[in-house]
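Weekly sync, protein design subgroup
Attendees: M.S., D.O., the rotation student, P.L. (late)

Item 1: inverse folding check
M.S. brought a backbone from last month's batch and wanted to see whether the design step gives back something sensible before we order anything. D.O. pointed out we never logged the input encoding, so this time it goes straight into the notes. Structure tokens as presented (211 positions):
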């Protein structure tokens, strides 16, 4: 899992979803392990990851304050084995313009029926704000933070990275569709189908991202 979180961090940087900021983590037992506060693309194989207890209510020294995002989601979502925090440019722009990101193609269903937007542009560095973000996320696969990037979850950190890539691709499709006409989301029946194959498809996307 440590190798996978480093690979996920580098992949997010390689495809332009993070620059100087962002972080990735994976759950292990009653703790999670998160990348250090440095550019994800610059992580080395031997860079230490910080362990954060999911039982306690304090962050260890040296852990980025936005680890509260991960803490709150892991505690609320037992299905989450990995989390990625990034700055997908089109998704962030659409949220700031109050344009919904809807599933216009099959993979868009991997985020939910509409990508939730956390209406808070400041960094999430407090316990209570992390809890509010996790509540806004609900059962969706990802969330956009107005003016502040996005968060994606997955059964593993690699699948979370794949879902972050899908989030940006879905945002790009929504942007193009809105400029060309009236966007037409997939039907409920189509949504259910694509949701049922999400793990398989995300796994292939992750294999592509990882290279």
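Designed sequence read out in the meeting:
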């Amino acid at each position: 899992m440590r190798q996978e979180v480093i690979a996920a961090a580098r992949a997010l940087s390689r495809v332009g979803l993070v620059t100087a900021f962002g972080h990735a983590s994976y759950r292990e037992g009653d703790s999670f392990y998160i990348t250090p506060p440095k550019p994800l693309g610059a992580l080395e194989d031997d860079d230490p990851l910080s362990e954060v207890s999911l039982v306690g209510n304090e962050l260890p020294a040296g852990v980025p304050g936005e680890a509260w995002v991960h803490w709150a989601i892991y505690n609320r979502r037992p299905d989450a084995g990995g989390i990625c925090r990034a700055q997908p440019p089109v998704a962030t722009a659409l949220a700031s313009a109050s344009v919904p990101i809807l599933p216009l193609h099959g993979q868009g269903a991997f985020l939910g029926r509409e990508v939730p937007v956390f209406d808070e542009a400041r960094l999430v560095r407090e316990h209570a704000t992390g809890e509010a973000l996790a509540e806004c996320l609900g059962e969706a696969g990802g969330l956009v933070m107005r003016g502040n990037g996005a968060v994606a979850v997955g059964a593993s950190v690699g699948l979370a990275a794949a879902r972050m890539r899908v989030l940006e691709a879905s945002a790009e499709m929504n942007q193009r569709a809105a400029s060309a006409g009236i966007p037409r989301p997939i039907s409920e029946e189509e949504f259910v189908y694509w949701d049922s194959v999400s793990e398989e498809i995300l796994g292939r996307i992750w294999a592509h991202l990882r290279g």
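Discussion: The first strand starts at residue 23 and ends at 28. The beta strands are 23-28, 31-34, 50-53, 82-86, 117-118, 142-145, 150-154.
Action: P.L. to compare against the previous round before Friday.
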